[in-house]
């Protein structure tokens, strides 16, 4: 039962609790096991990509440099959300203090935004590789790759810091607030504020455009040039190879941007809190899990490196 007496804020600090998925103990156990298994698969899959990129010289190229950083982001991204989520599935609702909710929102938005920026950087890398192959090594230097990653992180930190600070300056009336979500995401926390939030919603929309729409448009422009260049390749084998290096990235882009846009760029009047929570499950579990699967199953270089690493490991263990 929520207490909406604003006077309680003066003597009791505000805490948040997450709405439970189900009150049925058997379903709680099943959900816990399912999400825990998915989390382990995300950790193992993305760690495998980082390990194979770091240990194989043939994969020390800008494309795999960005891919390993994307995998690292996915590990951090899910680790900010899933452990706390798992602890709340079983048993009673566990309160999270205002500062803890703010910290989770900051890291969640930062890592999610960096993910979006990095996907745009990866599209630029594919554009240079396919449209300007002779100048690829001159353009995509190690220094530029590092600057692009650092720039993506820096811009994401700047935007998420401003957004999180703005939201947690709002008053929250009552001691115990229930968030209709499994994490401290921006839209559900905003709905709990006991103040006029129209300006905050407009700012959230602007940030959403900067993080989602602008990078997505840049990716689309890159792929228009890429598609044009691929069609000009004379050999069918060359076209197939060029397409295969881009198709994995495109699948990840459509999943990531599609789900996030449904949550952050839809008009508030047409959104449902339950729908937002269901969509959030996709970009919390499905996208980070599919990233390593898509990039390994559709990439001969990564598959070959993983196969060689496993064979070498097995051979070393037998001696």
TrEMBL record:
<dbReference type="InterPro" id="IPR000276">
    <property type="entry name" value="GPCR_Rhodpsn"/>
</dbReference>
<protein>
    <recommendedName>
        <fullName>Olfactory receptor</fullName>
    </recommendedName>
</protein>
<keyword id="KW-0552">Olfaction</keyword>
<keyword id="KW-0472">Membrane</keyword>
<keyword id="KW-0297">G-protein coupled receptor</keyword>
<dbReference type="GO" id="GO:0005886">
    <property type="term" value="C:plasma membrane"/>
</dbReference>
<feature type="transmembrane region" description="Helical">
    <location>
        <begin position="144"/>
        <end position="170"/>
    </location>
</feature>
<keyword id="KW-0675">Receptor</keyword>
<dbReference type="GO" id="GO:0004930">
    <property type="term" value="F:G protein-coupled receptor activity"/>
</dbReference>
<feature type="transmembrane region" description="Helical">
    <location>
        <begin position="64"/>
        <end position="86"/>
    </location>
</feature>
<keyword id="KW-0807">Transducer</keyword>
<feature type="transmembrane region" description="Helical">
    <location>
        <begin position="243"/>
        <end position="265"/>
    </location>
</feature>
<dbReference type="Pfam" id="PF13853">
    <property type="entry name" value="7tm_4"/>
</dbReference>
<keyword id="KW-1003">Cell membrane</keyword>
<dbReference type="InterPro" id="IPR000725">
    <property type="entry name" value="Olfact_rcpt"/>
</dbReference>
<feature type="domain" description="G-protein coupled receptors family 1 profile">
    <location>
        <begin position="45"/>
        <end position="295"/>
    </location>
</feature>
<keyword id="KW-0812">Transmembrane</keyword>
<feature type="transmembrane region" description="Helical">
    <location>
        <begin position="29"/>
        <end position="52"/>
    </location>
</feature>
<feature type="transmembrane region" description="Helical">
    <location>
        <begin position="106"/>
        <end position="124"/>
    </location>
</feature>
<feature type="transmembrane region" description="Helical">
    <location>
        <begin position="202"/>
        <end position="231"/>
    </location>
</feature>
<keyword id="KW-1133">Transmembrane helix</keyword>
<comment type="similarity">
    <text>Belongs to the G-protein coupled receptor 1 family.</text>
</comment>
<dbReference type="GO" id="GO:0004984">
    <property type="term" value="F:olfactory receptor activity"/>
</dbReference>
<feature type="transmembrane region" description="Helical">
    <location>
        <begin position="277"/>
        <end position="297"/>
    </location>
</feature>
<keyword id="KW-0716">Sensory transduction</keyword>
<dbReference type="InterPro" id="IPR017452">
    <property type="entry name" value="GPCR_Rhodpsn_7TM"/>
</dbReference>
């Amino acid at each position: 039962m929520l207490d909406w007496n604003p006077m309680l804020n003066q003597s009791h600090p505000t805490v948040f609790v997450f709405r439970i998925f189900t009150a049925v103990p058997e379903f709680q156990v099943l959900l816990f096991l399912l999400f825990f298994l998915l989390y382990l698969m995300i950790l193992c899959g993305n760690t495998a990509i980082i390990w194979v990129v770091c240990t194989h010289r043939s994969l020390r190229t800008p494309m795999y440099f960005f891919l390993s950083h994307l995998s690292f982001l996915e590990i951090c991204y899910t680790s900010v959300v899933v452990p706390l989520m798992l602890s709340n599935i079983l048993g009673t609702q566990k309160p999270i203090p205002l500062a803890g909710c703010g910290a989770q929102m900051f890291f969640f938005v930062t890592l999610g935004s960096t993910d979006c920026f990095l996907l745009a950087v990866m599209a630029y890398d594919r554009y240079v590789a396919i449209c300007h192959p002779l100048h690829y090594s001159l353009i995509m230097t190690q220094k530029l790759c590092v600057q692009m990653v650092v720039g993506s992180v820096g811009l994401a930190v700047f935007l998420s810091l401003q957004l999180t600070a703005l939201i947690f300056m709002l008053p929250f009336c009552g001691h115990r607030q229930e968030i209709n979500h499994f994490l401290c995401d921006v839209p559900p926390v905003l709905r709990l504020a006991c103040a006029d939030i129209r300006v905050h919603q407009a700012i959230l929309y602007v940030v959403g455009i900067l993080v989602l729409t602008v990078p997505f448009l840049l990716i689309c422009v890159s792929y228009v040039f890429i598609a044009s260049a691929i069609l000009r390749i004379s050999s069918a084998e060359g076209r197939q190879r060029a397409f295969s290096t881009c198709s994995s990235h495109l699948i990840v882009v459509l999943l990531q941007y599609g789900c996030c846009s449904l949550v952050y760029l839809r008009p508030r009047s047409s959104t449902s809190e339950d729908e937002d929570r269901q969509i959030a499950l996709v970009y919390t579990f499905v996208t980070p899990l599919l990233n390593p699967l898509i990039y390994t199953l559709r990439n001969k270089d990564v598959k070959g490196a993983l196969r060689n690493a496993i064979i070498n490991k097995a051979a070393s263990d037998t001696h």
